[in-house]
Amino acid sequence: MNISSAILHVAPIRLEEVCVALQKMPGVEIHAQSPEGKLVVTIEDSDTNSAADSYAAMHGIPGVASVAMVYQYSDDESDKSDTEEVEA
């Protein structure tokens, strides 16, 4: 599992178009936006797309000036079996 968040700076005139493109991306959710063109999004890995792929795709959306990751959390679900206590 990999969850991260980012701030995007978008040309205000293209804000609506960028939001539509982001909403079509798997694992991407918009949490906040301003009329000045700032967006706060989260990106969650999916079975078909990694967060890195999502970041690269965001950079390619017309109107996106910058994408800055501000938080990242990663957890390997297979580690859960290693941390389970064994009764003796």
How would you characterize the overall build of this protein?
With 88 residues, the protein is α+β, with helices and mostly antiparallel strands. The chain has a single domain, classed as Alpha-Beta Plaits (2-Layer Sandwich). The chain is built from three helices and four strands. Strand 2 and strand 3 form a beta hairpin. The protein is globular. The protein starts with a strand and ends in a 5-residue tail after the last helix. Keywords: Chaperone, Cytoplasm. It is found in: Cytoplasm. Chaperone for NapA, the catalytic subunit of the periplasmic nitrate reductase. It binds directly and specifically to the twin-arginine signal peptide of NapA, preventing premature interaction with the Tat translocase and premature export. One of its GO terms (biological process) is negative regulation of protein transport.
What percentage of the residues does DSSP assign to strands (E)?
35-45%
Question: What would you call the structural class?
Answer: alpha+beta
Rg on CA atoms, Å? 16 Å
What global shape is seen? Answer: globular
**Widest β-sheet, arrangement of strands:** 2-3-1-4
Subcellular location: Cytoplasm
GO biological process, one term: negative regulation of protein transport
Organism: Dechloromonas denitrificans
Protein name: Chaperone NapD
